[in-house]
Amino acid sequence: MRALSSLRWKIALTTTLVCCTVAAALGVLVHNVVARQVVGEVRKDVERDLDHALGHYEYGTSHGDVNVALDPPGLPRPLRELVARGRTGSMVGTQDGKPVMWAAGPADQKALAVWIPYANTRHRLRDLDTAILVSSVVAAGVVALAGVFLADRISRRLTTAAAVARRISAGDLDARVAFPADTGPGTRRYHDEVRDVAQALDSMAASLQERLEAEKRFTADVAHELRTPLTGSLAAASLLPEGRPKEMINDRLKALHLLTEDLLEVSRLDSGVERADLARVELGRAVERVVAGTRLPAEVRIVRDAVVFTDRRRLDRILANLLVNAHKHGRPPVEVTVEGPVVVIRDHGSGYPAELIEQGPKRFRTGDPGRGRGHGLGLTIAAGQAAVLEIELGFANAPDGGALTTLRLPVGRLPEPG
């Protein structure tokens, strides 16, 4: 959200900056054009008066009402030097402390100069600059408001798309952006990049949902199809004569049967129809019972016992899977600590893969194949059952080595009956 808010202000500020830059450039251009025109008119007037004054001086007649003088003390030095070289010219200066436009030309080795008031011209130019400045400020303000409005509209739509993307990444594959269509009677069609992003996101979510649904259906179908022939194979294997071949066949069939049951459990968890049967459970005793039931060596330490409301069968399944995983992929000793509603299971092996810690368990994903380590359906089932019980399941590695699995059971009351 903060990044999108930043984007909103970046767009608004960029729009305003571009508008101010364009307004400043146009203002300078207009000022230069108008100033050149206005000053040029005044310069023409004073040069015309100079021509008349030089003509009258040559014939010794009166100069009329023109301000004219020979070598006046207020004549600007650059203009005086120009006349000394036998040339005529004009420039802005002062006379008696007032701004005037000077024009001078050579007359008997002297400078014959005329001048006309320039104060009104300066006022006109100043008024022009004020008008340009006010217009630029108003234009920049209007464009800034329009930029904020458009940027806010874009930002809100991107915020919606980002929120939907987060929901999809969290597992809500039914989430869609679905901006309302800009088509219909009297509606102008245009290319909308934000809508393109939203449609691509919706299309991706739909495609991902279809693939996951297909994967779930395939898993359930395979498990159901394998169950019947496996049951028959186990029954047939029991009729074989005793010996090593029978033991090997039974071991393989039992392993395949367990895998099939795990696949069926995963498919039930994927369907979202599983419901917990909550009851009062003493957590410490439940953990001790599960450890004893697995017949796996583990040290149970109860720092502080707690009574929780949970589904005992599902909790047993979670704890058993985690203990089996610790013994299968870790190294002893395996320690189980109960402190209030929190259960921590730790082994002393090489720890969980980084991918598992970051993304959680995935079915049939393995760690480093070269080391023969990984995890399959056990952790996936544990995570699925924990979600049904609203247990927070965390995976981490201990600083001094070993995998850490933490279960935080919710503390509450049983729901009211009926």
Automatic annotation (TrEMBL):
Listed EC numbers: 2.7.13.3
Enzyme class, first EC level, given as a word: transferase
Compartments it resides in: Cell membrane
UniProt keyword annotations, A-Z: Kinase, Membrane, Phosphoprotein, Transferase, Transmembrane, Transmembrane helix, Two-component regulatory system
Residue ranges constituting the HAMP domain according to the UniProt record: 152-213
Coiled coil: none
Keyword Transmembrane helix set for record: yes
Catalytic activity: ATP + protein L-histidine = ADP + protein N-phospho-L-histidine
Listed SUPFAM superfamilies: ATPase domain of HSP90 chaperone/DNA topoisomerase II/histidine kinase, HAMP domain-like, Homodimeric domain of signal transducing histidine kinase
Gene Ontology MF term list: kinase activity
Protein name: histidine kinase
